[in-house]
Write a structure and sequence with these properties.
One of its GO terms (molecular function) is DNA binding. InterPro entries: SpoVT-AbrB_dom, SpoVT-AbrB_sf. This is Looped-hinge helix DNA binding domain, AbrB family. This protein has 3 helices and 2 strands. By secondary structure, the chain is an alpha+beta fold. The protein has a domain of 36 residues. A hairpin with a 2-residue loop joins strand 1 and strand 2. The protein is elongated.
Length: 91
């Protein structure tokens, strides 16, 4: 954790120093939540902008067709002959 002193501008803005932004991996345009607490304020990433874990994406790309077999995946591809077969398989 780091502690720095910042100054509130006349427009009500604060500047977050680059070392802090780099440490938190915050880039310009990132949405943040500013929350008042009993001792001051809390600043954190907006949930929509938080990185997602890979497990949370399980099932995201569901398919309604049969998966290819290992032999089909490993077979050499000839676009001219395989195209029609692929089209029929996907219908």
């Amino acid at each position: 954790m780091s502690t720095v002193t910042v100054t509130l501008s006349n427009d009500g803005q604060i500047f977050i120093p680059k070392p802090i932004r780099d440490q938190l991996h915050w880039e310009g345009g990132r949405a943040l939540i500013l929350e008042t607490t009993a001792t001051g304020i809390s600043l954190r990433i907006h949930p929509a902008n938080q990185p997602q874990r890979l497990e949370s994406l399980r099932g995201f790309l569901k398919q309604d067709r049969f998966p290819l077999s290992t032999e089909e995946l490993c077979a050499p591809v000839d676009v001219t002959t395989d195209w029609d077969a692929a089209e029929q398989r996907n219908q």
